[in-house]
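forwarding from the other thread:

> can someone predict this with (2R)-2,3-dihydroxypropanoic acid?

sure thing
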Amino acid sequence: MNLHIDQAKRILVANDRGGYTVPTDRLYPFQWNWDSAFVAMGFALYDTDRAYRELERLVEGQWADGMIPHIVFHQPSDTYFPGPNVWRTRHTIPTSGITQPPVFAIALRKLHEATGDKTRTLPLYEAALKWHRWWYAARDPEGTGLVALLHPWESGSDNSPAWDIALARVPTTTDTPVVRKDTGHVNALMRPRNEDYQRFIHLVDTYAACDWEPARQWAKASFKVAEIQTTAILLKAGEDLEALAHEFGRMEDGSEIAALNEKTRNAILAQWRPDLSRFVSCDLVSGQDIVAPTQAGFIPLLSLDLDKAVVGALVDEMKAWSKGMKVAFPTVKPGIDSWEPKRYWRGPAWAIINWLLIDGLKRNGRVDDAEKLRKSTISAIEAEGFAEYFDPVTGEGCGGLGFSWTAAAYMWLV
Ligand code: DGY
């Protein structure tokens, strides 16, 4: 018996709050959207009933328009800011008003493959389909094939250097007083800066004043990014949804999703920049490419069958970033001005990002490179425990500890 697997399971038990899993105690005391999808894949390996519960509880937060919010506030807690009173949304169970990367359908397909339980999968399939339709209607109203984020928190990579230029346009003034709780749980040097929080909350205030209506938000947004990582995840999830549609004999859904997937596939391909050896997001306010070197540029490996030359260029670039690192894969190119190996999304290695990259490398025939990244992830966790993320230079486990998605990633990758 691998003792680390035992420990990973114990973390998921400790973070259980009644059918859903908090990312970690105190720092994140509610249900987070993409965290839960990764956690469900972990549960799918040994407790499929609990995996279904994770997704079912998340869907309790789904809005009538199809959006699945990034946080569902099932029970009160005073250890987190911003809580429901800041979001001021109208859903029966309090939720945030923004979303997060749509890993959900990827988890659902894996779970369905493990159980074949159509009765239990079908309502979740319907929820995922509604959410995918929301993404295209609300976040790609012009039909480009790339979906846009209106808040850095929607990317899951909150303070990535990818947002530095776009976020600098967002005022630091807020109607809501910013009373941070995160820095009471974790060293402030590992977290976003106060100025980032001012801008994050400015956006929340702006959208709350739009009553969280997508068209009004779209018109008002001072932060609007057609984002490559989220779009690549949406496409992989779209492929999985398409497969489920066919399995359930939902041919019309299948054709609808296939058409969306095809449009998105072409749109992602158009974001390839050979001079950077990466894919890029687009800042929709300025119309400019976002060229900051972050992990997002490699995530399209997950959902595209790329030409050999493109894969070769991506992998060479990934190797250059990983050279000399104790733990791969750094989320920012080491050594550039914005590189901070301990600060959240400004350099650290994250097990779930590695998981997506490993799947992407395998999909594109780079099994040996995938294996190296898998081993690097496993050794980091075995050396330091189930930390939120890892300093790629020293290997130190950073951020919150006893972290649910790191536990799920370990079980999936080991
Ligand atoms: C936070 O509060 O740090 C989260 O990442 C927002 O989802």
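The longest strand covers residues 281-283. thats all i got for now
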